[in-house]
Design goal:
This protein is mainly beta. The chain contains no helices and 21 strands. The N and C termini lie far apart (about 45 Å).
């Protein structure tokens, strides 16, 4: 047991435990006279660091934001460099670096960006801060085709804006870009295109979307040819799950009595199950949910 001095102490550390072991902790208050109150609930804690970082490497000059994924059997990383989007691919030992989306006189990619792979090409998506447009680059390092897929390039006050909170995903048949359009009533906009080429199709998957005064976040991925999206809703305090084949009929996946107040969401698919993680920074809780299709 351990006694923490009274008089405003709000935290303490336990440093003499064995690393790699889960310990269970309870606590209670004590009066100046030594009388103890009721014990709290039991809390589990892991002792020791979770990560050991080795062989740290410098890929090249650049800044955040950064998106890194395992794609096409190698590591793919996109990041901002002097206003453009650079992409590095490698195996953790050697790296190939090039520019996927170059910067321009009124075109700087310094906010949201993401990368995916499908149909033999990488898909890089990014947002330009001056015009508030959504851009993509499709190809492979050294050979890119770039395109503005939403917006008009205007930098005037009152211009339409899109590309906020942009993410991308892909399979061998289709590319997808998801981002928000803040102009009222607000949209969560999905843009898709066949991997073989062609025009982009715009689908507002959620409307009356709170993307002006709050921080919406989302995740998406293809599974067996169907596209699934996980979307946080701050006004409703819920996390919605929907799919393309289902016509984007949304279901709140949070258990009864739980509220989503945070901004970080992710989703994986393993062994015929979806796994979703979301952080509630209002209550300092981490949600980990899973379910079958």
């Amino acid at each position: 047991s351990r006694t923490v001095p009274y008089g405003g102490t709000r935290s303490t550390s336990i440093n003499d435990r064995e690393p790699g072991v889960v310990y269970y902790v309870k606590m209670c208050a004590r009066t100046i006279g030594g009388e103890r109150g009721r014990m709290s609930n039991e809390v589990a804690g892991f002792c020791g660091g979770f990560w050991t970082w080795e062989n740290l490497q410098t890929i090249g000059p650049g800044n955040g934001p950064i998106s890194a994924k395992v794609l096409n059997g190698s590591i793919g990383v996109v990041y901002e460099n002097t206003g453009g989007v650079d992409m590095a691919t490698g195996d953790g030992t050697t790296w190939s670096v090039g520019t996927a989306l170059p910067s321009g006189s009124s075109q700087s990619f310094v906010n949201w960006m993401d990368v995916a792979y499908g149909g033999g090409n990488y898909l890089v998506g990014a947002y330009t801060i001056e015009a508030g447009d959504a851009w993509v680059a499709i190809g492979n390092p050294g050979s890119w085709t770039t395109q503005r897929i939403h917006g008009d390039g205007s930098t005037a006050i009152g211009r339409p804006e899109s590309g906020n909170y942009l993410i991308v995903t892909a399979d061998d048949e289709e590319y997808a870009v998801l981002h928000t359009v803040p102009a009222p009533p607000g949209q969560l906009l999905l843009q898709t295109r066949p991997a073989s080429g062609g025009a982009w199709t715009d689908t507002p998957v959620r409307t009356n979307f709170e993307c002006v005064d709050s921080v919406p976040t989302h995740a998406m991925r293809y599974v067996e040819g169907n596209l699934y999206i996980l979307s946080g809703a701050l006004l409703e305090k819920e996390i919605y799950f929907g799919d393309q084949d289902g016509g984007w009929s949304w279901t709140n996946i949070l258990p009864a009595g739980r509220e989503y107040l945070g901004k970080n969401i992710d989703m994986l698919y393993m062994s015929d199950q979806f796994y979703a993680a979301a952080y509630d920074y209002g209550n300092f809780d981490l949600y980990l949910l899973n379910g079958a299709i």
